[in-house]
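Subject: two folds for Thursday's group meeting

Dear M.,

Sorry for the delay on this. The cluster queue was jammed most of the week, so I only got both jobs back this morning. I'm pasting them in the order they finished. Each block is the input sequence followed by the predicted C-alpha cells. Could you check whether the formatting survives your parser before we put anything on slides? The first protein is the one we discussed after the seminar.
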Amino acid sequence: MRFTRLALSGYCLTTIFSISAFAQGTAADYRRAAELKDKTLALVADLPDAATWIDGTSRFWYRKAVKGGAQFFVVDAKYPAVKMPLFDHEKLAAALSKLDGEPRTALNLPFATFTLGPDQNLQFQSAEYRYRCSIVDYTCQKTNFNDRNAQGGRADQPVASPDGKWEALIRNYNVFLRPKGNDKAAVPLSYDGSEGNAYTAGFLVWAPDSQKLAAYRVLPGYHRKIQYVQSTPPDQEQPKYITREYPKPGDAVDVPQPVLFDVARRKQTIVKNALFPNPYSISRAAWRKDSRAFTFEYNQRGHQAFSLIEVDASNGVARAIVDEEAKTYFHYYSKKYRFDVNDGREVIWASERDGWNHLYLYDGVSGRVKNQITKGEWVVRGVDKVDEKNRQIWFRAGGMTAGIDPYYTHLYRVNFDGTGLKAFTEGNATHATSFSSDGTYFVDTYSRIDTPPVSVLRRVADGGTVAEIERGDIAALKASGWHAPDVFVAKGRDGATDIWGIIHKPSNFNPAKKYPVIEYIYAGPHDSFVPKTFRAYDAMQSLAEIGFVVVQIDGMGTSNRSKAFHDVSWKNLADAGFPDRILWHKAAAAKFAWYDISKVGIYGHSAGGQNSLAALLFHPEFYKVAVSSCGCHDNRMDKISWNEQFMSWPLGPEYIACSNAENASKLQGKLLLSVGELDTNVDPASTMQVVAALIKANKTFDLIVLPNTGHSTGGVYGDRKRYDFFVHHILGVEPPDWNKQGEILGSLADR
C-alpha cells in the first residue's frame, strides 16, 4: 500500500526530527510515523550482521545493510582486505522474480540468512516454501515446506548401511532387511509392529560397523486436528476448509520404544524402559563411533526430568549417563547443551542445578560428575567451540562483568577442569562470534542499542585482531537528529534484582511536555526480548511518533538470568513479570517528569497477546488500555510443546488461574482483540473463547477478525487500528477520519 504525500513530505528529515509543534495523534503524526522507517534506514550504511563460515574453507560471508537495502559479501580470512559480493545479486533477484512472479530487487532479496552447500546451491525458506538456487547458473526451484520427508527416509525409502551392503526399510509396520537393491531377498527383522504400534522409518539408524541397527516402535498418542474455514480464498468465491494436526496440553503423546537389532544374528532386543517410563520425547538414536552403544535423550512428560541414556549394543541394556532433575522445569529448548568427548568417554553438559546455567564435565563411563567447569553468579549463554585436543571450551556468557548489562554476551575460554578462564571480547557491548571450521579464526561482531555494529576478524590462538571487516556508519543518521532508545534500570519485586528495559521517545520529543506511556510486551519464558543490538529503526519508534513514549521490559519469569529469576514463570504465566514491570514504570515516572503513567497502554502478539489482555484482567489498577493480537489466552488451547514446558503436566488448577478466558469477567479498561482466521500457530478458538466469555459477562470491547490471515497483527490495517485505539482511549482525541480523508497509509511497522 501507498499513501498520498501531502505538503509534509516536502520537509527534509532534519526538519522532521526537530518538529515539536504538532499536536499528538494528528494526521501529520501518523504520516511522520509511516515515513520514519524508510527515511531512517536511508541514512545508515555498512551495518554488518554476524558472519557465517563456509565449511572446509577459510572464507566467510555476511549480510550488510547498504543504502536501499542489503547485500551479501564474502571474505577470505587469508586476504581480509578483499571483500567481494557473494553472488550476483541482480541475477538472483531476476531468477526469484521469474519463479514467484513477484518483483525482486538486488538489494531486497527475500532472505536474511541461508545455507550454502559445496555444490554452490543456496537454500532458504519462507513460511510455506523451501527454495534452492544455484549461484552458478542462477536457476531456482521451490518445494512446499510441508512436503519434506522425515529424517532417515519414508516407508518406501530404504536406509542404506554405512558399508553399502544392506538396506533397512519399513514394510507392513515392521523392520525388514535386504541386500542392497535386492527386494526379493528382503527378510523381516521384527514381527511385533502393527498399525497401532508401528516402526518408523525416520528412526532407523545404522551402527557405523553396519552390524547393528537402532529403531523405534511408536505407540501413537492422540493426534488432535484443528479445522479452519478460509472465508475469502483468493482463487475462488466459496470458502475452503483446512485441517491441521495440532496437539494440545494434556493430549496423549506418541511413545517411542527403542529396539536394538543384531543384523548378523537377526536378533531383536527390546530395550527395557525403566529409565524412561513416561516420555514427552525421546531423541533419535545416535551411535558411538566404535558401535559399542547408541545414545538418546529422554525428556520426561512435565519437563522436570531429562536424561542422557546409553544402550549397550552387545545386550540392549540401558543406563543413564546423566540424570537431570528440577523442582520446576528443565528448560531444554534453549539451555540444554551436550558434547560427547572421546566418543562419549566424557560428556560436557549444561545445567542450572546450582541456580545459574553452567557447564559440567561428566565421566561417560561411570556417570559421575568429574568437575563443574564454569561457576559463578552469571550464565553460560551458549558454547561456540570445543577443542578436545587441548581440552578447552569456547563459550558465550552474560553477567560476568560488574557494571555491564547482564544480557550482553561476551566470548570466553576455559579448560575442561575449570581453570584458565579467559575473556576474548571486551567493552560495554554484546558480541556475536563465529569460528572457522579449522579453528584458526573467529569473527567478532559487536554492537549495542546506541552503537552501530563492528565486525572484526580475530585469531583463535590469542584473540588478537587480524583485520577490521566492517564498521557501521550512522553519521548521517545522527546528524538528522535521530536518537537511540534510552536504557533504564530499576529494582524488581524483591527490591534487589535489576530489571532492564528501554524507552522510545518521539523524534519531536519535548521534555517540557507529558507523554503517555505504552508498553510493548512479550513475556515468553523461553528467552529475553529487550533489544541489545543496534537497530536504526524499530516499529516501537513509529508508534512513539504518534505522541507516546513506548517501552519494552524484561521482567522476572523471562530467561537468561538466574534460575530463580526464570522460575517465577513456572505454572504462573499470568504473572508475566507484571510486579516488576509496574515498579519499573513507577521508578521511571519518579525520575522523568515527562513520563506519564496516569493511563498506561499495553500491546502484544501471540504470548504477548496473552500478556497484554492479562494486564487488564489482573492489574487494572495500573494498565488501562490494551491491544491484543492472536493471543494464546488459555494455555490449554495452545500448542503442547510450549505450554506444558512452563505450565507443567498433568494439567492442574494453574491452567484455569492463568486463563484469560476463565478470568474474562474481571475485565476493566479498554480492550481491542484481533485474530487471524487461519492462525496455525495459536488456535483462533483461543481468542473466540475469550470473546464468548466477555459477551457472557456483558463486557464492552472491540474485536477484529482478519479473513484469510494467519498468525499476524493484521499488517498495515492492524497497525493503524492499534494506533487509532491508543489515540482515542489514551490521548483522548479522535483519530483522523481515514474514510473521509481517502488516504492510504504506507507501512507503519516492521512486520
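Second protein, same layout:
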Amino acid sequence: MIASLPKQQRDVQKLFLLKNTFALRSRTWERLKFEIEYALQKGTTANSFLIQADRTALIDPPGESFSEIFLETLEQLVELKAIDLVVLGHINPNRVKTLIQLLERAPQIEVLCSTPAAKQLPQLFEKEEFTAEVNIRAVKRGDILDLGQGHRLEFCPIPTPKWPDGMATYDPATQILFTDKLFGAHVCGDQVWDEGWKVYESDRRYYYDSLMATQARQVDAALDRFESFEIKGYAPGHGPLVRYGLTPLTQSYREWNRVQSTQMLSAAVIYASAYGNTATMAQAIGRGIAKAGVTVESINCEFASTEEIKSVLEKTSGFIFGSPTLGGHAPTPVQTALGTALSIASKEQLVGVFGSYGWSGEAVDIIANKLRDAGYLFGFEPLSVKFTPDAAMLQKCEELGTDFGQALKKGLKQKTKAARQPATNVEQAVGRIIGSLCVVTAKRESASSAMLASWVSQATFDPPGLTVAVAKDRAIESLLFPGDTFVLNILAEGKYIPLMKHFLKPFGPGEDRFEGVESAEAEDGTPILSDGLAYLECRVEQRMECGDHWVVYSVVEAGDLLDADGKAALHYRQTGTHY
C-alpha cells in the first residue's frame, strides 16, 4: 500500500522503529513548493527521528509547513525540555522556522550541524528576528557523540553544490544511517520501510534525476564515506525508509553516477541563490542537460573555490551562469566566478545565463553582456524569472537545458561526421521495422508537450495496453511517469503530412506546441488532435530504461475513431540508427 492519507490533509505519523528510536513522518498530499522533484505530485513525507537514550536527540525537524502539528506530536513522545540536542542534516529557512519554535519552548537544546551550517544559522536566526542565545556546535567527519545505551552518533559531512552544509549521521546501536537528502523519494503513504521496494523504483529514479544527477561526483564521494559504516538501513529525509532495497538502491546510485560522469561531453551550471529560486532553476536546467546525455557539473559558487571552478571550466564544452539580482548587481561570488570564466574559458565553449529577481533583474543582463562582449556563443537567450518559477517555467528551464545539451552534441557530431561509415546490413534490416505514425500529447498543470512517435505497439489485451518508446532527451519525457495520463493520436494515411511537419519542426523552450493546430480536450485537459484517424486516452503504468530511450507501458482508458474508413499512416525508415 502506497497511500491512504486523504488528499489535502496533513498529519504526523509517529512510529517505533528499533532500539530507543522513533520516526515522526510529517505527511501531505499537497505540493509544498514548486520544485522539479515534486512534479510527480504523489505527496511527500518529511521524516524526522527521535532517539531516547540517556540523552535525547532529535534528528532533522521538518519545515514550517508542519511546525505546529509536528511539535504537538513530538510532545506526545517526549517533554520538549527533556530534549538535549537537535541534529541537522542540512538547513534552510523553512526548517529554521520550526527550529526556532522548538528553541523558544526548549532553550536548553544544543544544535549540532556541519561547519557551513553553523556559520549560516546565526544569519538565518537574525532574519527571523530570533535573538535568543543558541548553543550551536559544528561537527566534522568522524566526530562521535555518546547518547548512552549503545547509541553513539557518528557524523559524516556530505557537501554538494545544492546542500554545501549536508551531513549524514550514523547510529551503531541500530545500524541506521540518517541520510537527509540522499536515497529519498517524494511519495505519501502509510508504509514506513520499503517492503516491496521495487514499487518505488521509478519514484527513486526520478528523485535522483531531479536532485542528484547534477551532483554525481559529490554523491559518489558520499557513498565512498558510507562504506566505513555497517549499515542495515537508510533513514532519508523523504519517503519510505530503506532496508529491503538497500543494496540494490546503493548499486543503482553507483551506476547512475557512473553514467552521469562518463559521457563524452560535459557542461557546468555555475550559480548562486539568495532565496532558493535561482537554485531551483539551476536544478531544472541541469536535469535537462543530463537528459540530453551530457555530464553536468553543478557548482554553487558561494561555496566553491576558484581552483575548483577553474578545474571544471577547463574540461567542459559549455557553461551556464545563474544569478539573483541583489542591489542591481550579481552577488560577489558570481562576479568572481564570471571573472574566472572570462580569463580561462575557451571562446569555443557554448554559454547561457539565467536568474531570478524580486524587484529588478539587472544581473542576468550584466552577465550576458560581458559574455557577448568577450565573443562567446549563446546556447539560449538569457532567461529571467520574477520570484518563484511555476510548473510551466520549470518545464521551460528543463527544455532550455536539453536544447543546450543537444547543441553541444550537434557540435561533436559535426566534428566526427567525416568519419561516419555507411549503414551496415544489420542497421538497414532494423530500419525495416515499421510502426504507426502517431502524435503523443500530454499535460500536467500548466505544463504541456507533444511529440511525433512511430515506436508504438500494442502490448496487452486485458487490460488493453500499449508501449511507446520515448527518447530520453524528449521534452515530453518528464510528463510520462507512472500515474500520468496522455493521449495517443494516430495519424491517417493521406492526411498526416501537415501534422507531421508541424510536430517535426523545432520548438523553442516553453513554446506552445499546439498553436495553430485544431484540437479538442480529453477529460484531463490533454489535447486531442481533430485531424487524426483515432485517439486513445492512456494512463502510464510502468516505464523501463532501455539504452537511450524509456519504454513506457500504458493502459488504454478511453478512445474513439475519428475516421472509421481511414487507414493508419506508417513510418518507413532506411536505417535503424535514427528515426
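Two things I noticed about the second structure. The chain has 13 helices and 29 strands. The mean pLDDT is 91.

Cheers,
T.
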